[in-house]
Amino acid sequence: MRRFLVFLPFMLFIPLFSFGQKQYTLDDCYRIALENNTTIKRAQNDINTNALDRKTAQYSILPSLAYSVNHDFSYGKNIDPVTNVFVRDRFSGGSTGLSLNLELFSGFRRLNTIKQSAYSLQAANYAKKRIELELLSNITQSYSRLLLDKEQAAIGRNNMQTTTKTLVIIKEKIKTGRLTKYEHYTFNARLNSEKADLITVQNDSLAALQELKQFLNFSYKDELIIASIDTTLLKDIFNTPINATEFIETILKTHPAIKEAQMNEQVARLGVKVAKSSLLPSLSAGAGIASNYNSNETITDGSTMPLNKQLNNNLGQNIGINLDVPLFSKKEFVNSVKKEKINVSNAQLATKEAENTVISNTLQLINEFNSAKQKYKATLAAWQQNNLSYNLYAEKYKLGQISSVELLTARDILNASAATYLQSKLELFFRYQLLLLLKTY
């Protein structure tokens, strides 16, 4: 019993599994998730899509060039594409041409669309960072939960071993008449309770493990063993001061959720400018070269006129400028501008909501970290005192000065104290990790 109590405060130093098996640290889980998580990959696809949209917007300011060719078969009364007169004959012919179009002015619509696509691309990048931060935070919590379950399971197994050994001793004492069967019933009931508690912890551990595998995009068949934390860092973590005001001011400048909302706000503002461009005149220029031919066209000797000669003879060119002035569009364009202004208002509200959410969540993390420090200090002192108290109860029980119920009560207090202490160590470590993630992103 004493040997178990001596080693209990150092359990987080001891590997939970046998040597030779691959153990994943928290940093390993971060790295694997950033590489494999499907949500991250979808966010990257959104970035790629926005990058293509930006290229499309940039190329839209260039002139468009198109080549066309067609061939028709006509029967009965039709217009000859070469002579442009009505004929009652069966013939085949067609036309070919090259056209060039260039938008000279469209109310700066295309330029604003390019700027808009650039902000959309930045928003997509910040969205990915936001998703990464949320993912890593979830991994941190799952890792902490899984590690706590494994530590509690280890404590539970040790308690079961101790209870089993005690039962063996009790049976021997019952045979010699030194104890009654009442003592055996009490400890046997405790052993069954400890088995039930262990099953509960193991089930929760399996749920946490599957959750972590999902974050890492591991198959449910894949083995995943997590490594213990380095508790030597707890002293430095405990002595790390966090100024809430300074920390929040720093986070507000860099948090990806806020930056994403700000980029979306810029997209909405440019959407107003794009909509207003529909109210302005647009000017475009175009040019083209075209020709046509008739497969039945003949020359004076009755032979068919060569195709290249027909194309040269019928070659035509054109150039023009087009001015389009919107006079009345049944308020379609005006209402479009109003809708875009509403989008700007919504984007501003979204930015404010993002800031409020970040402030609230950050304050909560800071408060939880500070509480974890105080809890760690208090539970350490409580565990040490309960450890001494239990050792005294164990000695008294050996001397027959107390009953088994009193001993079990003392052990319950010690076990609860040990579990709370282990939980406070993990909570302090992982609360600090969550703050580091916020600062990193």
Which runs of at least 5 residues are low in confidence (pLDDT < 50)? 1-19
- For the largest beta sheet, what order do the strands appear in spatially? 1-4-5-6
- How would you name the oligomeric state of the polypeptide chains in this document? single chain
Count all strands and give the number.
6
In CATH, what is the homologous superfamily?
Answer: Outer membrane efflux proteins (OEP)
> How many domains, as an integer?
1
Annotate the secondary structure layout.
Elements: H1 2-7, H2 26-36, H3 38-59, E1 64-74, E2 77-79, E3 86-88, E4 91-105, H4 109-176, H5 181-216, H6 234-238, H7 244-254, H8 256-276, E5 282-294, H9 307-313, E6 316-324, H10 332-398, H11 404-440
Antiparallel strand pairs: 1-4, 2-3, 4-5, 5-6
Describe the structure.
By secondary structure, this protein is an alpha+beta fold. The protein is built from eleven helices and six strands. The chain has helices at about 1-5, 25-35, 40-60, 110-175, 180-215, 235-240, 245-255, 255-275, 305-315, 330-400, 405-440; strands at about 65-75, 75-80, 85-90, 90-105, 280-295, 315-325. The strands form two sheets. Strands 1-4-5-6 form a four-stranded antiparallel sheet, covered by helices on one side. A hairpin with a 6-residue loop joins β2 and β3. α3 (about 40-60) runs antiparallel to α4 (about 110-175), α7 (about 245-255) crosses α10 (about 330-400) and α10 (about 330-400) runs antiparallel to α11. Belongs to the outer membrane factor (OMF) (TC 1.B.17) family. It comes from Adhaeribacter arboris. It holds the Pfam family OEP.
